[in-house]
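Quick illustration, no need to memorize.
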Amino acid sequence: MTQKPSLSFWQIWNMSFGFLGIQFGFMLQVTNISRIFQTYGGEVENLALYAIAGPVTGLLVQPIIGYLSDRTWSPKWGRRRPFFMIGALSATGALVMMPNSPSLAIAIGMLWVMDSAFNISMEPFRAFVGDMLPEKQRTLGYAMQSFFIGIGSVIAALLPTILTNFGVANTAPDKEIPDSVKFSFYVGAFAIVAAVMVTVFTTKEYPPADMKAFEAEKQRTKGLWHAFADIFGGLLKMPATMIQLAFVQFFTWFGLNAMWAFMTPTVAERAFHATNPDSAEFQAAGNWVGVMFATYSLVSFLVAFLLPVLARLTSRKTTHMISMAIGGISLLSIMFIEDQYMLLLPMIGVGIAWASLLSMPYAILIGALPQGKLGYFVGVFNFFIVIPQLVASFALGPILTELFGGKTVLMSTLAGASFLIASILVLIVSDRSNPEESRLQKS
């Protein structure tokens, strides 16, 4: 094993640029999916359940893609880049079809296709940092991904509002999606392909260190049975750091889903006094949620490069703990706010937490993983993102109706409490560098 060379700022920029497109498509979905489902006749208490595609496809797709990408090598296309392209091209069709679906059922089906495509691209991008960067640059690598995630999110979240301000219709006949949303999804379809191709054509991957051993291992484990045994057998070999981070991730992503699924009806009812999804006021509230989510995304990419500095001064654990606590307190404050402009203030704290959760857990994790199985274990780590989302899909509806009496604003309170629990659980995490790479750096 030889030490990976340090890459320049612009090399790290290019290898991360594709995440801008992936997050552009993802944020279009997150920001608009509730209004799309409600426009097609979906019930508010079922919004989280309708969105179950995200966690299910993540649970199934990411470990498999991680396993396959670890075992892939092409002298021309590399290891991870073929999966970037497959995911991006698949997502474009779903982004075009989603706002043109003839029914709620078809829209939900398009969500399944879209989330599968995002997962095909997203997991290899996470492993890409471990493949290409030495340990001392990995925090910067994930911060760069957070930077592009922030940029993509800001533009995507604001796009319906921007188009509305330029005269594109933000209302439509009953059970139809406004043109402002449709055109935003078309732009997203282009953005994901264009951004991913920048990374594909400007970045060259390192070949396996021992090609003979790599090919021999592929032959030894050839076949469905070996693939099944490797994928699921690896669950018993998770590093302790991954298990510790799993508890942090559970409460983080449970809280995020509570926020994402119910923010549109919350803002519509409290700030715009609207409950009818076909009304102009409700659609205006949908646009404003885009502005709110753009605000936290803007904050996330502004602080993305400050977090590595704070991590060097303190630690990655301390940085993540503080960031999650700020996000939790910010979400708790939403229950006291009814003015649409004041609702932007909590998004500042959410943005700090978002920037941290997109980088710090991965920077902590990668150093604890065996280098030959980065893709697989990053895919397995996604279990601890999708399992809380699955729990949220089934639990948030009953919580809303049975415990909160239908008051959607309390879902933000629940999200804030979840973030605070995650902040406390960071204390149990052990953060260490990859032992083999650490020895190389000292020698």
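The mean pLDDT is 85.
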